[in-house]
Amino acid sequence: MKKIYWIALILGTMQLVTAQTTDQYSYNLMPWPKEIHQGAGNYVIKEDFTLFIQNVSSQRLHNGATRFLRRLSGRTGVFFEEGFPQKVKSAPSFIIEVEREGSLQNFDDESYSLQITDKTIYLKSITDIGALRGLETLLQLVTPSANYFYIPALNIEDAPRFPWRGLMIDVARHYQPLDVLKRNLDAMAAVKLNVFHWHLTDDQGFRLESKRHPKLHELGSDGEYYTHEEIKEIIQYAAERGIRVIPEIDVPGHASALLTAYPELGSKKDTYTIERYAGIFDPTLDPTNEKTYQILEDVFTEIAELFPDPYVHIGGDENEGKHWDENPEIMAFKKKHGFQSNHDLQTHFNLRLQKILEKLGKRLVGWEEIMTPQMPTTALIHSWRGVEEGLQPGESLAKAAQKGHYSILSTGYYIDRMHDVNNHYLVDPLPKSFSLTKEEQKKILGGEVTMWGELVTPLTIDSRIWPRTAAIAERFWSPATVTDIQHMRKRLTMISFRLEELGLTHLKNQNVILRNISNGYQTDALQKLTKVCQPLQKYSRNKGGTEYKSYSPFTLFADACTTDAPDAYQFSQLVDTFITEAEVAQKPLESMFHQWIANHEELLVLKGETPLVSELLELSSALKNVSAFFLKILKQEGVSKADANDFASLMNIIKEPRADVEIVTYDAFMKLFEHLKKSEL
Ligand code: ACM
């Protein structure tokens, strides 16, 4: 057979599936793989499903494959005859072929390929970590039909775009128990994230046990800290899932908790207490005191013994140096050494830590403020500031790469700011606008989602991290061309629900909170209201960092609300459709207005039963009245001048945040109003 004929045959049976052609091929994959080729038929999951791991003896992969079998069985309801990977190869349905064990470091291979036919599944990878990534893809492909579950016949070639794909969890502002961390590590693995950055210390808590200086955790943590055994448990749990763990000890600022234990290390001769508010505070380590370095060296030595990763994060952010300026001895030290600014003094401090870490065989990571000319290029720069700090997003990232530092991006991935997923999804660590050489581009390792913990507790943290982080994970893993927002949102809905399989509480805890609010009464009406509300954005929920202290309740309506309020999103889509094709959207719009009117009546039932709903009734009542107004216009019942005036005052109510949430339909209401006014309906 002629070669050309072969090619035609292959192309004829295998169709390349891209994110753009996915209306046809709607796999709920996230992150979207590098290449998918559609095959013929389906692999049907049955009781005789068996799995064999070829070539490599990796405990990590054996355990990962066993978890895969449990999840597959749980998903499909099929009672497998074999619950574990085969010890001896015996006509397996699924073969995993791996060349070697991977190591948890930058640039080790995480690629894999999947060949799924109607008869067998092959997963091939260089490393066992690559195979784990492939197993997650396979689980995302499991599809139901009327009588069975199947995996569609496909060929997938996949590899990450960036080697550093992280999630930072701040456990200092609010302590997060091990089970919270573990379920989030499972979710990270499900979307192919591979770095857990553990923000262990801050003004509100020093949460790492120190055997050499136990006062640090005893006085700095209210008893909520991680023992060495627990740290090892998390590192092991993460490593089993192909995830690295980077600890952060944030110094010299953000140090109130540390100074509560060791006030003599402070730049102000004072006593210190654990901070209960949110914000940027003055307590700062004294960089002229040798004891500061002794204690930090001891802490880093313990860290080096515990954490296998080569990188240790020293924070270094937001030190305003107020206490340095107020201390004449520190000022004299600064003068003696010819330091022009507090930044120079902080560089002196950072370089001391850099040497300590180097001695311990570790490399330093710091927030972008650590990047000064003297900082060796072995230090990894963590870019986080943006427009609000008067900088271009990613400015320090590109600069760091040009100087020869490895760097990672967090600007744009601050999920605690409660922006919609669209907002984060298109932020690219390596946008086309960067004019970097190929070598410089390689220095940009990827990015990290940052989950700052001021406003989250174990009850709510999952709903702040997920599902948006899955979309950001796609940015870190998938080709830069995968940018279709509609397609991402569609897949994300399913991925979000799938994450529950791993024990995440981001969906179910909404009802836990609402039951508390309703005091055990029906929560349907409250839930309906959450679908148009979102918590206040950009830290305005916690005005000046003082409305909420670390021990305030995080069980309020705002905690039950999330970003991307689904009904609000649907409503704004409908308004857009209405403007171009009124007849298509009219009925669905009317239906939404009717629902909001009915919902208010239902919510009124709770009025006499609990004090926690009164503020919500104002919101709900405004929504009801606006709905009635629009219905009147849509049904052409005539609108009086008084009605229009009422509309204006209603919109003022809608615009005004209440109960720490805002109704997200404001813009769409205004758009619809303006359109209707123009069309003189
Ligand atoms: C930071 O957000 N202060 C790194």
Automatic annotation (TrEMBL):
Keywords tagged on the record: Glycosidase, Hydrolase, Signal
Domain Beta-hexosaminidase bacterial type N-terminal: 27-159
Record bears the keyword Hydrolase: yes
Top-rank lineage group of the source organism: Bacteria
Keyword set includes Cell cycle: no
SUPFAM superfamilies referenced in this protein's UniProt entry, alphabetically: (Trans)glycosidases, beta-N-acetylhexosaminidase-like domain
InterPro entries referenced in this protein's UniProt entry, alphabetically: Beta_hexosaminidase_sua/sub (IPR025705), GH (IPR017853), Glyco_hydro_20_cat (IPR015883), Hex-like_dom2 (IPR029018), HEX_bac_N (IPR015882)
Signal peptide (residue range): 1-19
GO cellular component: lysosome; membrane
Domain Glycoside hydrolase family 20 catalytic: 162-479
Alphabetical list of Pfam families matching this protein: Glyco_hydro_20, Glyco_hydro_20b
GO molecular function, one term: beta-N-acetylhexosaminidase activity
Catalytic residues as annotated in Swiss-Prot or TrEMBL: 318
GO process terms (BP): carbohydrate metabolic process; ganglioside catabolic process; glycosaminoglycan metabolic process
The family this protein is said to belong to: Belongs to the glycosyl hydrolase 20 family.
Protein known as: Hexosaminidase
